[in-house]
Amino acid sequence: MRSLIDIVDFTPTELDELIATACDIMENPAAYAERCRGKKLATLFFEPSTRTRLSFEAAMLELGGSVIGFSEANSSSAAKGESIADTAKTISCYADIIAMRHPKEGAPLVAAMNASVPVINAGDGGHCHPTQTLADLLTIYREKGRLSNLTVGFCGDLKFGRTVHSLIGALSRYDDIKVVLISPEELKLPSYVKKEVLQKNDIPYEQTTDLSSVMPKLDILYMTRVQRERFFNEEDYLRLKDSYILEPRKLQNAKSDLCIMHPLPRVNEISVAVDKDPRACYFKQVLNGKYMRMALILKLLEEATV
Ligand code: CP
């Protein structure tokens, strides 16, 4: 049974096919309106979410299917101690496909090993968030016209930011990608991502604490929130939370076709004044995420029936 746990579960060719399907859905939504009639998506969210859960639900509804699920662990039998494995076996009796978010790294993988339907990782702890990456790839493709030959700056919480880990994993398989890592010392990209992804794929990268010095070279600036929920103490979070605040004046030396991205939610790291800048793409990412999740649901359900 094919699931999506990590973005590298899909080849670059498959990612390109998903992008093509998403673009076709945007052009011809009526052609897809009945494609999942009679199918059910279960959204199992053990952690808060606005975009991922609701875009999955919107995606399935726009494909003609239905949605069941829960949006917090306390309203499920997990609160009584039920295991992920038993939850996955149970939900497989009710739904054709599962989207799961969980605070523990690896929980969606355990679900996939026990479910008899496809499981989609909708974010597992500080590990990865492959469907955000699908949204990010479509956004980059639509804004820049390519997924290769790009200098991509990741700024903020690169330690706990699972969207960063997943996007680096995806982009590392395209040609001529350069990565610039901008973070406080305490929130640097984990060494396993540097070794297993960047170094293994010979991706040139640099690390800095200074956003302004690298701004002119960036094609993409991927801002991230400092992930309060992953910190062991509040004091450290308060000290680090406003390390980077993107404001219009800080974009003066940026490229005129810079693409400013953020997986959202934002807290302080992008001033709302930046929203008016035509280079701000983060709300486009939100919409692109729905179309990519539609394409993903179609792919996994089609593969499950062959
Ligand atoms: N980008 C993202 O995962 O947003 P939510 O936490 O609102 O789902």
List keywords for this structure.
single chain; 306 residues; alpha/beta; five-stranded parallel β-sheet; four-stranded parallel β-sheet; 10 helices; 9 strands; globular; binds phosphoric acid mono(formamide)ester
Structural summary, described in words:
The chain is of the alpha/beta class and 306 residues long. The protein has 10 helices and 9 strands. It has a 5-stranded parallel sheet, with helices on one face. Helix 7 (191-199) links the parallel strand 6 and strand 7 (205-208). Helix 2 crosses helix 10 (282-305). The longest helix has 24 residues, at 282-305. The protein starts with 11 loop residues before the first helix and ends with a helix. The model has no long low-confidence stretch (mean pLDDT 96). Phosphoric acid mono(formamide)ester binds at residues 49-52, 123, 132, 263-265.
What is Rg? Answer: 19 Å
Helix count equals 10
Helical coverage, percent range: 25-40%
Uncertain parts = none
Largest sheet composition: 5 strands, parallel
Q: List cofactors, ions and other ligands.
A: phosphoric acid mono(formamide)ester
- Count the E strands: 9
Strand order of the largest sheet: 7-6-5-8-9
Task: Report the sheet-strand fraction.
Answer: 15-25%
Measure the end-to-end span.
10 Å
Q: Outline, from the CA principal axes? A: globular
In round numbers, the mean pLDDT is 96
> Which secondary-structure class do the elements indicate?
alpha/beta
Order of helices and strands: HEHEHEHEHEHEHEHEHEH
Would you summarize the structure shown here?
This protein is of the alpha/beta class and 306 residues long. It has helices at 12-27, 51-62, 84-92, 107-114, 130-144, 162-171, 191-199, 211-214, 234-240, 282-305; strands spanning 40-45, 66-70, 97-102, 119-124, 150-155, 177-182, 205-208, 220-223, 259-261.
